[in-house]
Write a structure and sequence with these properties.
heterodimer; A: 356 residues; mainly alpha; 18 helices; B: 472 residues; alpha+beta; 5-stranded mixed beta sheet; globular
Amino acid sequence: MLSRTADHLFWMARYIERAENTARMLDVTLTTSLLPQSPQQAERGWRAMLGISELQPRFDALHATMSVPAVLDFMVRDPENPSSIYSCLQAARENARAVRGSLTTDVWETHNYTWLQLQSQLREGLLQSDPKQFFEWVKFRSHLSRGVTIGTMLKDEAFYFTRLGTFLERADNTARILDVKFHDQGDAPAPAVAAEPAAGSQVQSQSQSQGALPRAGNGLGNGHAAENGGSPHYLDYYYWAAVLRSVSAFEIYRRVYRDVITPLRVAELLILRRDMPRSLAASVDEVCGNLEQLKNDRSGETARRAGLLRAELQFGRVEDLLAQGTHAFLTGFLERVNDIGQRISQDFLVPPETPR
Amino acid sequence: MTQSAIFNEMYVTHGSVRSHYGSFEGWLAGQSEDLMRLKRTEADQVFRRVGITFAVYGDGAGTERLIPFDVIPRIIPEPEWRFLEAGLRQRVRALNAFLHDVYHDQEFLRAGRMPAEQVLRNSQYRPEMRGVDVASDIYAHIAGVDIVRAGAGEYYVLEDNLRVPSGVSYMLENRRMMMRLFPELFVRNRVAPVEHYPDLLLENLRSVAPQGVDDPTVVLLTPGMYNSAYFEHAFLAQQMGVELVEGKDLFVQDTTVYMRTTRGPVRVDVIYRRIDDDFIDPTAFRPDSSLGVAGLLDVYRNGRVTLANAVGTGIADDKSIYPYVPDMIDFFLGEKPLLANVPTYCCRKAEDLNYTLDHLPDLVVKEVHNAGGYGMLVGPAATRPEIEEFRKRLVAQPDNYIAQPTLALSTCPTYVDSGIAPRHIDLRPFVLSGKTITMVPGGLTRVALREGSLVVNSSQGGGTKDTWVLEA
């Protein structure tokens, strides 16, 4: 298939997945902010979320103070924020439109209708009146787009590139959701890891350039680690329960562990469990499987690196992986996912120079 | 002009229905207003969800609009269509023969049928095509001939669109929509199907592949998703199962055109291009074009790739050449034209220019190279200052214009804000030329939605209707 077509399909899938995970992240933050706590603690939750998305400087440039409506507005409907749900759903739809001939009618109409409905949802104020329902709607549309992809598309390259985009993005996003909690505790701030768009695609270059921002999380520091340590235990419980719920894993946790919620087990479930569909291991499994279907004479090294990452998750123990610190582990993971994403671009998506 | 002097497609006189509309009119009279309103809303919603939109130039990038769809079909009785079809075949055959001639022996010009410099000095004439042999000698593989009906119902050819005519996707989607909204109508009426157009198109494109290519790779070349007709490009590529490519997806190497794929270069044999000549190859035509493919013209001239339509077809649908088409039919085919031309004043002739300047309020004046309803004056609908403004342009560059009497285009009942009212329509059938000439019955009917307006172009606020060729 055309390299450009593959590129659009890959990013179409990434953007819808990113919109979904942004909704999940906002949902968990909103839920935790409702717990009894000091305004500073609540604000720290929102800042951590912005920090892990590398959006703190951009937000601060626009808003003098932190408020829930301001953050929601910024993360959901701000067209200038390339990571807002609005921008992601628009980019997904624009990428789909660019290759609508390679999609089934059902897939195209799903993306197009999502975009049209988003505008009426926002116009009618659903975000203000019932943010949780709005987040549910975003998740539902993403589920629908995946379902209609699996349910209607021929299993050819177009399908595998779409799936590859979905799982590469999910690997990245689940790592970020997990990292919200650890982000400001580690000593190494998160690197700028958001993938750059493949060159030559207008659609992405408008929407996909959040790399290399100044380090997020500034001004969070002094003294609050101790404060954090001193927070009542039940807050932690609610926090991790919310994280689990945000990735639809609360019931799964109960079924798998039949025990109280501990951060280590949450990490194990979301990092290592291959049977947990939103875990890092499951996402990297899918990345490897789709890469295998797509392999060409340039993609050997990319497949090797993805395979190595998969093996580490498959055979690693949670204690060992996290011995270096959860944040450091997640940072390293995000770097490697980003590297695989860039290599996929070079191998498949950016047309190579005319061979001589 | 009074409504009664205008040919109405549905009614002979008020209340007296033409026989081919009898069944439809009876059905329509039995539908409640509420139901019809509901159906029209449903049509709008579906078109929007499906994304059947077009981009509007000069209205901010990425603005997408729906083309208004009217649910009252335009009905053509089958015998009338058979006449139109014969006339279209004849006309397109003659136009292709003319194109081959002006790029080879120029017998038409040498026989004095028209002034040679009018062809050779025309900006639409491509000297690059002199002596180039194209597959099957076909230049205009896809023609969208605009036909209007005037007077007591006579058909006229208004213009021959031989470059990149568009609109066929609306013809197909309008039919799909009508069948979805009113399936019962298709049980009661024998409407000739049109849905096989993409198959005919693909077969036609494959039939004109370069010599020696048995299983040609066909692609559709689009300027991209911000082009006004992008929906149609994507739609046709999908329906034919061919790649939709942009210029940057193609490259030339060793006199061959390749497309860049995830598995390396793949050879391309036939390009159905929806990009104008000027933009197709920056090394041959406009160097600032980023839409085309460097070196494409060279490969094409070497017969290693087919372009549909051919480069240089614009010379045959230029409005200054149009008056000579009946002569072409006589010269190349030795036949009498079946379809009439609209009488045309060529402002390059002093006599015609004077007549035009004296009668501006009654005439339609068009720029010879323009299309899409841009750059034209509709005398009866124009204000005095508009006419005077146009007069200046006309005097400054008379060669650039032709004038025609304002035809009383036929009308068809159409839903408007105040209910159902007659609105002017035209018809664009699509004629496919390859080893043979094929077309689907009917075409795209466009309707001018503003009361009294004669401009049906979608870029000027026109709408469309489903077109039925009704078998007896």
